[in-house]
Amino acid sequence: MKYVDYYQVLGLERDATQDEIKKAYRKLAHQYHPDVSKEADAEHKFKEVAEAYATLKDSEKRAAYDALGRHPQGEEFVPPRQWQQHFHEESADFSDVDLADLLAAFAAAQRAEQQERARRPFNGQDFEVSMSVTLEQVYEGAETDLTLSLPEYDAQGMPRRSPRTYRIRVPKGASDGQRLRLPQKGGPGLNGGRPGDLYVTMQFQPHNLYRLSGRDLYFDLPLAPWEAALGSKVEIPTLGGAVEMNIPEGTVAGRKLRLSGRGLPDASGKHGDLYAIVQIDVPAKLSARERELLQQLAAESRFNPRSHSGAAA
Amino acid sequence: MKTQITESIWLNTSDICSFEHVLEVSGLSAQELRELIDTGVIEPSNDDPGDYFFQTQCIVVARKAKRLRDDFELDTQGLALALNLLRRVDDLEAEITRLRARLYPGRR
């Protein structure tokens, strides 16, 4: 089990008062709450802050935590004997136990002991995770495997983290940031309580070709000057496979060429459009013949692209 | 490690669910959910207060409301204000993403 220094997480001394604990938590919550913060790694930081606060604001949990003594942040340690007895485990392996899970189980057990002797059911905790999805997956719908580590109680009631893999359906037409709910795949219930749910946020991976605008896709289409001037047929990559596109004569840079119905589908299956934004590219190095032809063109053409700009020479 | 094939429920704007279901999965009380409906933060898909139903996407908002209420100790008015502002931030960010995608040349 890894030691987490909750006082250090909140930036507090060991003898901090309840008031100081609350103040420190509030400040950090405003900074890192994942629903509010744009800081990188906010989710992970807030999780530590919330765990620290949940432990230190509760005097019984705080006493149990303080009894662990002081260890360097992140050090592997084994909880003291009275904890092990509490879970009827001796010299057990604690390497897959998470400190926050253990403190939560400890508190739940104490609550249950206080409230008559009856073993009251506690529902399991909900968990939220992110999953990276590609535009290709959303275009067709796809199955993908998600592996994560969630707590499970062993026979002694000790919460242990174990990896599991779920095969999840990425729905065709999903949007960035939408969630999937996996009923009862979250934390385990206690004493017959129902398991929590697992929420999976679908996060779109940036695509190396397309940029997403609603359900429309945009990409830059480089053309040679003569392709743009004379018109041509070019092959366009789409999520549904390559298609041929007509480039009209006299196409200028920045022009948007639309391929109808080649964007992402929405939930009802209706597709957005695909837009190619024209860029004019030139060879970095000219062959002798190319140079000769271009020089001939330059000498003979009367085209002046700056004739309307007012700054023309 | 075994791979489990699981049923997942897509929370979106085309499927619907009941008032009771939103309560169950969000952990909000009926009173809190009604107040969030009154302030317009959560919009039912019908106008029958006795038997509201919602887009399943509302579950995400209801759960966010529960988190903000717990983590910042907010009352319903503060909660509604925060959620409305967060929604505006989300809308503006989505608009920026949409506009950026159309820029020429891309990737700026």
Short synopsis of the structure:
Chain A has 313 residues and is of the alpha+beta class. Chain A has helices at residues 6-10, 18-32, 42-56, 59-66, 81-86, 99-114, 135-140, 225-230, 288-300; strands spanning 127-133, 142-153, 159-170, 179-182, 198-204, 211-213, 216-223, 232-236, 243-247, 256-259, 274-280.
Could you explain the architecture of this structure?
The complex is a heterodimer of chains A (313) and B (108). Chain A is α+β, with helices and mostly antiparallel strands. Chain A has a domain at 211-300: Urease metallochaperone UreE, N-terminal domain (HSP40/DNAj peptide-binding domain, Sandwich). Chain A contains nine helices and eleven strands. Chain A has helices at residues 6-10, 18-32, 42-56, 59-66, 81-86, 99-114, 135-140, 225-230, 288-300; strands at residues 127-133, 142-153, 159-170, 179-182, 198-204, 211-213, 216-223, 232-236, 243-247, 256-259, 274-280. In chain A, a hairpin with a 2-residue loop joins strand 6 and strand 7. In chain A, helix 2 packs antiparallel against helix 3. The longest helix of chain A has 16 residues, at 99-114. Chain A starts with 5 loop residues before the first helix and ends in a 13-residue tail after the last helix. Chain B is mainly alpha-helical. Chain B has one domain: Multidrug-efflux Transporter Regulator, Chain: A, Domain 2, CATH 1.10.1660.10. Chain B contains four helices and four strands, in the order βββααβαα. A two-stranded antiparallel ribbon of chain B has the order 3-4. The N and C termini of chain B lie far apart (43 Å). The A-B interface holds A 26, 29-30, 33, 35-36, 50, 126, 145, 147, 163-169, 171, 174-175, 178-183, 185, 197, 199-200, 211-214, 216-220, 253-254, 256, 267-268, 275, 277, 279 and B 1-14, 25, 57, 59-60, 63-64, 67-68, 71-72, 82, 86, 97-102, 104-107.
Which second-level CATH architecture of chain B applies?
Answer: Orthogonal Bundle
Give the radius of gyration of chain A.
30 Å
CATH top level assignment of chain B: Mainly Alpha
CATH homologous superfamily classification of the domain at 211-300 in chain A: Urease metallochaperone UreE, N-terminal domain
Number of strands of chain B: 4
Distance between the termini of chain B: 43 Å
- Please compute the radius of gyration of chain B using only Cα atoms: 17 Å
> What is the total tally of β strands of chain A?
11
Q: How many helical stretches of chain A?
A: 9
Q: What's the SSE pattern of chain B?
A: EEEHHEHH
Please give the share of residues in helix of chain A: 25-40%
- CATH class of the domain at 211-300 in chain A reads Mainly Beta
For the terminal residues of chain A, how far apart are their CA atoms? Answer: 75 Å
Tell me the number of structural domains of chain B: 1
